[in-house]
Amino acid sequence: MGSRRFIVLLCALACTMGAVRASFSAFNTADTHSFTVTVYDKESGSPLELVRVLIIRDGTLIQVGLTNPTGVTVFRDVPSGQYVLGTRRLGYADYSDTLSIDPSHSSVTVRISEGTIQTQAVEVSGSRFSNVSSMVDIRTGNQVLEGETYHPAPTAQATDLIQENLAGSVRAPTGEVHIRGMHGEYTYFIDGVPIPLGVFGGLNDIIDNRVVDRATFYTGGFPAEYGGQCAAIVDMHTRVPSGRFHLDASSYAGSYLTSDNSSLGDRVGALKSLNSNGQNLSLSNRTGNLGFFVSGTRQETDRRIDQPVENLFHDHGFNYFAYGKLYYIFSENDYMTTNLGYSQTETQVPFDSAEGILFDTQNTHDAFQTFSYFHRIPGDDDQESNLFIGLYAREGGLRYDPSILDDTKQFLEGDTATGYVVAQRRSFTTLGLRVKYDVQLSHQFTYSVGMDYGHSSGSEDFAFLPEAGTGPVFSGDFSGFDVAGFAQVGWHPLEWIAIDAGLRYDQHNSPDIPSQDQMSPRVKVSFFPDVVSTISLYYGRLFIPTNIEGLHRLALQIGGSNSGTLPERDKFYEAVYTRSWPLNLSSKIALFHKDGAPGIDDQTLGSSSVRTPVNLALENITGLELALTYNDPSSPFSGFANAALIHAYARGPVSGAFLAPDSSADIFDNDHDQRLSAVVGVNYQQSGFFVNLRGLYGSGLTNGNGSYAFKTGLFDFNQGAHTDPAWILNCGAGYSIPLGEGHSLEPSVYVTNLLDHPHLIKGAFFSGASFEERRNVLVKLSYHL
Description:
The chain is mainly beta. The chain is built from four helices and 42 strands. It has a 22-stranded antiparallel barrel. Strands 8-9-14-15-12-13 form a six-stranded mixed β-sheet, with no helix packed on it. The termini are far apart.
């Protein structure tokens, strides 16, 4: 019944939007073309990648493109007419010009210089293109983050980047983020290569947000090439500054500045002092067709993990992150790029529910390496082929040393006399391959085929330690793989409609469960009432595999079941309406529904700190999203607003993870369910000065009240089973002081939780509780060359 009701909603939305935008005729009769833009460095003659190229008509943004390492971006389905073409590249002069796009003008070459704004069209004199930290892609409905105006606090993680800039995302404990009512099941892509999350999680960020130049968020309308953990796909482009040698160095220090010290605990002194400091150094250069970027970061803090009680205790930690990127252009049709990252976290752990200075410690490390090769096979107009080959490796390790004095003990096999704490030694390696071949046969027809393969292996040692003597040790190796093949076709029979259809086959092979597979059809139909509007309807099957781990022997001692966790299988429906308005105001409205059978959530094994995915018999997620972005080209101000109303609820029993069977068939709100989420951002950036303000609202995650009588409607907030709503304000400001000859200093200050609002983020349910961090003031000094 739920699916039928949602289909009716899709049809109603489509009819409504069709009535609102009844101007098909103006667009249908217009001839459309592909238009190629190539951008070079004016002085060196080298092609420039990651240049934002915009085409604007009558003051309204029509399309935005991003150049590849050969400096090329292609706009498709552009009606004939007069346009303003603009480019934007960090460190380069803004370029703008007026031009005609028609069959005799199908390409243009732009050469830009480092320096100040250059203008060749009176209509846009003094404009700053793309001066916005978040925007909506009108053709696809994807949200896009531009790194130039994103100035997060130096303690922010990549998950903060997602949560602050993506509609439907919810801030969660331990540095996680929940997207569209799902439990952190998303994948990073870098240069076309997937970087899967660690098999056992951790505190490390895969990506340092300081090296992100642009991020595109896919939360729906997934083509067949995307699988795996696809609650969202985060496609990140990292930056390699072009031109001469660049050096950036920075250091920061921070402290709490609160009005009430009594609730912070003994670790925070009379002056509300908090040990928080860090340093960053990055270098980059480009010689001919070779470019590189390297970055290293060190951080120290007294609050590394979200605290499980209101008072801060036993949370001192260090984090180290290194990143490198290199690319080489072989020819105008061939180039390669490689990325390498390594992060390590050493921290105390505030795991126990009783406050005190304890001795639990944790050390985690994560690493990845990618290699991407791109080959373009040029053809006649509107005919070309592309081959992509990507290789990746992913490694990680975890060492957890609990104190034998911990209050929380694990009892084995019904023995309630001897309690144990569980020490961990875990490691994994994932090796993968991704291949994609796409062909554009004509303006109306394209197709692509490809495959993904990833193999994971590792070892896991768990020691049960009593207060005296030694306990049992469970050790073992594990191995498994995921393999997928996909095919996708795109058909554009008329100018006002496009159909994308695909088929994906996934197979998941994990220890201790039978091999799992699924054939997943996907189809998206897009309508174009005019050149600035898109309506799309989507249906797809999703297959989301669990992490490949070897927890069987450990879990049997705690749970006593032979039932492992199975992949999530979803039916996904979505309707989206996007529009670009004058003055670069863009909007997106999305309505979606997802039926999962089974669903997936995260749960802790007994009284240990080991987390594992579990199955929910049925999972239902319905949501309504709104995204707005604003950028007036004549103003240094920009802003955005994201809001989402989402209800994620499930029906038992909860099974899998080799835990004891659960016979409950009750309905409950998911551990990661938050009904209403909103983010509002305002940016000011001009002449080396920036000010950012972010307001984050959440109606509350679960408070652990499992006996509540849950209702299932989208507007049933079930507030008695959720924490109190809260607004959190974060702000930052900085100014770049030129020192001459390319040198500059940039002092900046950041305040998180500006209003010092203490509250419970989430209560203990499937996982532990978490409290909000108090007001934190950080001062940073950066040097740029």
